[in-house]
Amino acid sequence: xxxxxxxxxxxxxxxxxxxxxxxxxxxxxxxxxxxxxxxxxxxxxxxxxxxxxxxxxxxxxxxxxxxxxxxxxxxxxxxxxxxxxxxxxxxxxxxxxxxxxxxxxxxxxxxxxxxxxxxxxxxxxxxxxxxxxxxxxxxxxxxxxxxxxxxxxxxxxxxxxxxxxxxxxxxxxxxxxxxxxxxxxxxxxxxxxxxxxxxxxxxxxxxxxxxxxxxxxxxxxxxxxxxxxxxxxxxxxxxxxxxxxxxxxxxxxxxxxxxxxxxxxxxxxxxxxxxxxxxxxxxxxxxxxxxxxxxxxxxxxxxxxxxxxxxxx
Length: 313
Hints:
Blueprint: H1 6-22, H2 30-43, H3 49-54, H4 56-70, H5 78-96, H6 101-111, H7 116-172, H8 190-212, H9 223-248, H10 260-272, H11 275-290
Helix pairs in contact: 1-2, 1-4, 2-4, 4-7, 5-6, 5-7, 6-7, 7-8, 7-9, 8-9, 8-10, 9-10, 9-11
């Protein structure tokens, strides 16, 4: 059985498409065909927790695929090269900007096809160069996405440990959220577990707008999933801190919860406040998923962004 993974299917499909484009080149494309063979073998090899964490299997497959695709312009016929160069130009404008010198040069060569025989070699060389520049930027974006995904995993792990310790401390330790004067509030494990649950539910509800406006482009490291994981582990933390302040009377404007249902409502409300902190993560993920340049203004809310280009190509 072949290993499952959305990125594997995309890599294999792209490799097969590149093989088709190189099929008519016969011996001229031996090196590219060899690279595509390595790409397919890498994508079909099962991964492990280590390769998932380091991302070396994904990056190896993508980089070799990109390297093979940069050799395509060198073996295409005149008509095929013209069509291929136009597609490369579209991707380059999105990735490098229309004012990039090489993008400008490629655009001029495509327009100047009246003397086609003379410009064929120059067009092939410039298309190869622009393709390599586009893929270099995308490979850097993949590495940045993987590093940020690992950071989100670490944050989620720390948050989960914190929630677990708070549950234990509340259930068996000195932290008492159920003052003796209050009645109808269960003790033991039930109260902290339900506080954590309602805190996570509050976090989930408050994160729906940001996640629903996330660009719908493909990212090889599934950043929105880990973005949601951070929110679900942060919500219970905010719920516990809020309930502790509420029940201790630190917030003088609010009366401590007197019923169990009221306590859970406050847990959901405090859990939803995680959005005030994790919105910074939303902005960063939006930038990485949409493929926007790091120099872009990341202070814009994700709901105001438009969907960017496909970052998994």
